[in-house]
Design a protein that fits this description.
The chain is α+β, with helices and mostly antiparallel strands. About 30% of the residues lie in helices and about 25% in strands. The structure holds uridine-diphosphate-2(N-acetylglucosaminyl) butyric acid.
Length: about 425
């Protein structure tokens, strides 16, 4: 019997031991939807964003756009945004606290109004996550950047082109720069940019809006426009959700067909899953069939910027490797503190040793159900995955982390035969 505990947020109750079978559709990418929604601030015309997942971060982005004065309407997976009446250039603390990606409003607001005031995001459970590169870019582009009382104030007089090299590769930093430069009617060059599929999806939107952008390796050449147009765009599939569902299929010795996948965006993950022994068949037309092989082999994984292995899949792979036949090594090169899930997986019987940015995972025969805590979005996903193969019941608390980035993950897994129950917030369990 479980101890009596009070929960401050929804929890999942996962019964392990079911082999997943069936077909499931992957949603649009969270990390592409957010910058694309913020791009609508750059035009007074209406824009239509399709294939937008229904999740908390998207709701928060809609809320922020509405607070700034935009009209936002959601209809199924479509979001229609009209930013004509946006007057405010301030993104307040309460929204940035809920969603770090609100920092993506800085580039568009500066581009549109010549000024922006955005609350400074703090660190979070996966690392310090500074935005110094965003600010360094704006300063190089001629903006005055002041940080005071927890807010960044940026202001620019005459907008001019810039040649800027990022000191390190940053996804939202690159996106913020591209959003701003799309409004500047001079030539700019960005070097050492992030080329994640989500960044390229944003580039495709900015081009539809009238900006000229060429990407050559890690360099972007941009020539913006002061009259950017509205757009219609369908967001790319979520490669991290797809990867998470693939791991679920392999872990449970299941047989799952994923629909709406872009395998080209998932090379590093597909390679590692195959190396671990998974059977992956590209059926074409965005359909991929995933099964477990005869055994699950251990792996060595280093997370890297795209096209390397994504940090956003590291926690889920750790769940898989917890029951692999041998010792795996995971090196997390992107975030300095992204192993919180390891300690929770250990509560379920996993044998993991964390040393700095390395985690050594010694595969065990079985995981056991336990009461565990979600510490961040992808950590929560790894615990759900572990719960699917654990013996008995797993209770995962603080599932709001998961809701931020997955569209009804429990419904999708349950449609494949899993048994995951959502326990409402402040539930009392005995
Ligand atoms: N960094 C700096 N200075 C900066 C910017 C970044 O030092 O000015 C460091 C970060 O602290 C980190 C590294 O550079 O160590 C990479 O951070 P990056 O800026 O690329 O991350 P991000 O843009 O804040 C996006 C995704 C994350 C994903 C990372 C890495 C969005 C909204 N978020 O974050 O997604 O992990 O890129 O790929 O696109 C998630 O979906 O669970 C998630 C955390």
């Amino acid at each position: 019997m479980m101890n009596t505990t009070l929960y401050s947020s929804d929890a999942f109750l996962v019964e392990g031991g079911v082999r997943l079978r069936g077909t499931v559709r992957v949603s649009g990418a969270k990390n592409a939807s957010l910058p694309i929604m913020f791009a609508t601030l750059l035009t007074k015309e209406e824009s239509v964003v399709e294939n937008v997942p229904q999740l908390l971060d998207v709701e928060n982005a809609s809320r922020l756009l509405s607070m700034l004065g935009a009209q936002v309407e959601r209809c199924g997976d479509k979001v229609v945004i009209n930013s004509e009446r946006v007057k405010s250039f301030e993104t307040p603390k309460e929204i940035v606290r809920r969603m770090r990606a609100s920092v993506l409003s800085m580039g568009p607001l500066l581009g549109r109004f010549g000024r922006a005031r955005v609350a400074l995001p703090g660190g979070c459970s996966i690392g310090a996550r500074p935005i110094d590169q965003h600010l360094k870019f704006f300063a190089s582009a001629g903006a005055e950047v002041r940080v005071r009382d927890g807010y960044v104030n940026v202001e620019v007089g005459r907008k001019r082109g810039v040649r800027f090299r990022f000191d390190l590769i940053t996804v939202t930093g690159t996106e913020n720069a591209l959003l701003y430069l799309s409004t500047v009617e001079e030539e700019s060059c960005l070097e050492n940019i992030a080329i994640e599929p989500e960044v390229i999806d944003l580039v495709n939107v900015l081009k539809k809006m009238g900006a000229h952008i060429e990407i050559e390796g890690r360099k972007a050449l941009v020539y913006g426009s002061s009259e950017l147009k509205g757009f219609v765009h369908s967001v790319i599939p979520d490669r991290i959700e797809a990867g998470t569902l693939m791991v679920a299929a392999v872990l449970t010795d299941g047989d799952v067909i994923l629909e709406g996948v872009e395998p080209k965006h998932m090379k590093a993950v597909l390679e590692k899953l195959s190396e671990a022994g998974a059977r992956i068949d590209n059926l074409g037309g965005g359909r991929v069939r995933v099964r477990k092989g005869s055994r699950t082999s251990p792996l060595e994984i280093t997370t890297r910027e795209y096209p390397g292995f994504p940090t956003d899949m590291q926690a889920q792979m750790m769940a898989l490797l917890s029951v692999a036949e041998g010792r795996s090594v995971i090196y997390e090169s992107i975030f300095e503190n992204r192993f919180q899930h390891a300690y929770e997986l250990m509560k379920m019987g996993a044998k993991i040793e964390v040393r700095g940015r390395s985690a050594f995972v010694y595969g065990v025969d079985k995981l056991k159900g336990a009461e565990v805590n979600s510490t961040d979005l992808r950590a929560s996903a790894s615990l759900v995955l572990a719960g699917l193969v654990a013996e008995g019941t797993t209770i995962i608390k603080d599932i709001y982390h998961l809701d931020r980035g997955y569209e009804r993950l429990e419904k999708k897994l349950n449609s494949l035969g899993a048994s995951i129950e959502r326990l409402p917030s402040v539930a009392q369990l005995t």
